[in-house]
Design goal:
The chain is mostly helical and about 325 residues long. It is built from twelve helices and two strands. It has a two-stranded antiparallel ribbon. Helix 5 packs antiparallel against helix 6. Bound molecules: 3-hydroxybutanoyl-coenzyme A. 3-hydroxybutanoyl-coenzyme A binds next to helix 2, helix 5 and helix 8.
């Protein structure tokens, strides 16, 4: 079959809502887009462990510590599924990690901001995981089987992360004036980066058209951002926090919130590597990788030994 016919069949399958599986024919551009997006997503999960992991020893109670520990472990698991899913496209995990460690690969802009107080852990769960779920529930309906299936379990776990973050913020907001101030301060610092992490505005998003045509992305960056804002503003009001956007207003006609201008200059600067924590995140990740080398070697040696014993038996 020639490429044109295969492309037609591929697109017909997608239009019919069927999944594309690893051994199916796919255009090279589809494979490349998936590797780019899925690996960036995998990197985001494991880099995201760093700012939160930093607070495990400083959690204010045993309950909070156990919850945060579980959350950070969940993120490691998400990284694992996503690297495995990316490998189904014929790329090796070590190659992807090399791209991350050398600074060639992107990961979510959001993890280049510092976590200054305990309230930041609440803000991350509520806002960052909240924004991630908005995006990922849409991705769970996407066309590539291994990616969309990974999203189902990830979204369930992110939903727990989102609630634990909101609960931290709610408790702080109902606490002493100092605690409420801490919650508001964290909210002020994380609101705009959370809105930006959903990707540049549609007119500045070069990949969206192709990704939406092939149903990798089901909705545009701006559409998901709007949904996130519409859902989060009432949550903030409910716990008595003020959204740090003087221009924010509800439009009765459209039924949506209208927000002030987004600082896209800051966003593009952060994804170029110039955010407050980019250099530290990569340094810490490279160090963590080095420290874990003996575990990988031991696991590989054990697997080889087992395979040899099976062969002899
Ligand atoms: N951070 C860093 N880079 C970003 C970005 C962000 N928040 N948003 C967009 N970019 C990059 C894109 O990767 C692209 O760069 P490239 O072409 O060099 O690869 C460029 O900016 C232009 O953006 P586009 O809108 O054209 O890119 P996409 O169409 O890929 O859309 C996206 C961006 C919405 C983030 C999409 O890639 C996506 O949905 N990715 C999967 C989800 C994901 O990665 N989530 C990470 C969130 S963190 C997380 O889940 C961890 C959890 O613990 C909270």
């Amino acid at each position: 079959m020639d490429d044109k016919k295969q492309l037609e069949q591929f697109e017909a399958k997608i239009a019919a809502g069927l999944k594309i599986e690893p051994k199916d024919w796919m255009p090279e551009a589809y494979r490349k887009q998936l590797i780019r997006m899925m690996s960036q997503h995998a990197h985001s999960e494991i880099v995201g462990m760093l700012p939160e992991g930093n607070w495990i020893t400083r959690a204010p109670s045993l309950r909070r510590k156990a919850i945060l520990l579980a959350k950070v472990q969940d993120e490691a698991g998400h990284g694992l599924y996503l690297y495995s899913a990316t490998e189904t496209l014929g790329v090796d995990r070590s190659e992807l990690l090399e791209q991350l460690h050398s600074g060639k690969a992107k990961y979510s802009s959001i993890f280049n901001y510092p976590t200054l107080t305990w309230a930041d852990i609440g803000a991350i769960g509520w806002l960052v995981d909240g924004a991630a779920i908005m995006n990922q529930t849409a991705l769970a309906r996407g066309s590539y089987g291994p990616y969309s299936r990974a999203m189902v379990k990830i979204c369930k776990e992110e939903s727990f992360h989102n609630r634990q973050g909101y609960e931290i913020m709610m408790n702080l907001a109902q606490g002493t004036p100092e605690q409420k101030e801490m919650a508001q301060d964290a909210f002020n610092r994380w609101w705009w980066p959370s809105i930006m992490m959903l990707g540049p505005s549609d007119d500045k998003s070069p990949n969206s058209d192709q990704l939406m045509r092939w149903k990798v992305k089901m909705e545009s960056n701006d559409a998901i951002r709007q949904r996130f804002i519409d859902r989060t503003v009432p949550q903030a009001e409910f716990i008595g926090l003020k959204v740090p956007d003087a221009d924010l207003k509800f439009n009765d006609v459209t039924g949506h919130y209208e927000h002030g201008p987004i600082n896209w200059e800051e966003f593009f600067d952060v994804i170029k590597g110039n955010g407050p924590c980019n250099a530290k995140r990569i340094k810490d990740r490279v160090e963590a990788d080095k420290k874990g080398a003996w575990v990988r070697e031991a696991a590989t040696a054990y697997a080889a030994k087992q395979a040899k014993e099976k062969l002899v038996a």
